[in-house]
Structures are given as C-alpha cells and as structure tokens.
Design goal:
By secondary structure, the protein is of the alpha/beta class. It has one domain: Purple Acid Phosphatase, chain A, domain 2.
Length: 230
C-alpha cells in the first residue's frame, strides 16, 4: 500500500499576497517544510486555504516565520495557536505523527542561521540544540515502535551544508541536523523533506530520499509528490 504526500515549502509570501492551490493537490496529505510567511495573518490564511484540499497537513516552521518577531517563544505560541484553530493542520514541532506505518517528525533546525539573522540577541543556539535533541529522541523511540515501518523527517532548514550544493556560504560550524541519522539503527528513515534552499532537490543518498520543493514565483508551481510503500 502506498501513502502519498505532496511536498511544498519556501513560499515566502508577503502580506496580502495571493496563493491559489485549487486543482493542484495530488495526494491526500501535504507536507509544508517551513518558510511560508513572516506575517502571521498570511500564514493562517495560507494553511487554511491548503486545508480545503487535503485530509491532513503536516507543517513545520522555517526561519522566515520569525522575522521581526518580538521573541522566538512568543512567535512559537502564535504559530501553535494558528495551527490549533485550523482543522486538519498538524504543527510538527511538538507532535510525532504515526499513521499507516509511517512516522512523521519535524523541527525547524535553524541550521546555518546566525543569532541576528532574524531576532537580535535571540539565543538561537538554545533552539538549535532543542530541535536536534527532539529529533534524536523521537527517531530513537520509533526504532522500537512496532507500528513504525518507515520515517519521514521534515525540517525548515537543510540537513547539512551538502544541500547548498556549493551555492551558499560555508557552514558556520553548526551541528548538522543529519546527526539524527545516528539514532536510526534500524534504517527506518526513508524520506527527508526540507526547506531553506532556493532550488528543487530530489536526490537519494544512502537509501534516503531528500526533497526540497520551493515556490518559484515566476514559474508554474506544483507539488512534489512522494509515495511511501508500506
């Protein structure tokens, strides 16, 4: 049995900017890998719009959502409240989803983002380590979970510097998110959907399919569909 997911990310929508997904859904479920908008009203409208076309939307925040926020903690509360108000939307920051043999876990990651990129004087290091620890703990627990046959990771930033493909500055000595692979003792991780990269990526490395499907505003934009066979 195949379970399909539409992958979209990096919409970078401005306030009041229109985004129409009518007749574009190709799966029952949608993965949104961060960077929808820094405007919370636009984030709410976009997630609500997408909820009309899917049975479930699994969303994780990207660094963009925190641009000009008062604090990271308060912005996380805003995003949590938005997701709670929209039927079918799951905020992956604090929830591991297990459905039909698939374990879905997500985190922003903040990989290769500096303290002052988004919020001045914010202790991003704290959130980076929390996100990595959350992923490690969740993946480790799913190794012994009999109902989890395959794992899909969702992150708002890239797994490591390799996924800039030489186009971005070298990593700022951050701990890469793919350190989480060390916890995957039973090789259950099969897909990794990530944001914060400007070009489409669909590549397999060591039996893991890494996917990035950013919105390109000057071109037709469609979902990238992935199907996990259970």
């Amino acid at each position: 049995m195949d379970i399909g997911f539409d992958i979209i990310n990096d919409l970078y929508l401005e306030p009041e900017e229109s985004f129409n997904w009518e007749n574009k859904a190709t799966s029952l479920y949608c993965i949104v890998s961060g960077n929808v908008s820094s405007d919370m009203r636009t984030l709410r409208q976009t997630l609500a719009h997408l909820s009309h076309f899917y049975q479930g939307i699994f969303y994780i925040d990207g660094p963009l959502e925190f641009n000009n926020a008062i604090s990271i903690g308060k912005r996380y509360q805003e995003i949590t409240n938005i997701c709670r108000m929209i039927h079918k939307v799951v905020f992956l920051r604090t929830q591991v989803i297990i459905m039909n043999g698939i374990g879905i876990i997500g985190a922003n990651g903040w990989f290769n983002h500096t303290f002052n990129d988004y919020i001045k004087n914010a202790n991003l290091e704290q959130y980076k380590m929390q996100d990595l620890a959350y992923l490690l703990h969740g993946v480790k627990n799913m190794q012994i979970h009999n109902d989890v046959k395959k794992i899909l990771i969702v992150s708002g930033t890239v797994p490591n510097e390799t996924f800039y493909f030489g186009e971005e500055p070298e990593s700022q000595n951050d701990t890469p998110l793919d350190l989480v692979l060390k916890a995957d003792s039973m090789d259950k991780i099969k897909y990794w959907s990530f944001g914060s990269y400007k070009k489409i990526v669909d590549t397999k490395i060591n039996d893991i399919n890494y996917i990035n499907n950013p919105y390109i505003k000057k071109q037709p934009f469609y979902a990238k569909r992935v199907a996990l066979d259970i």
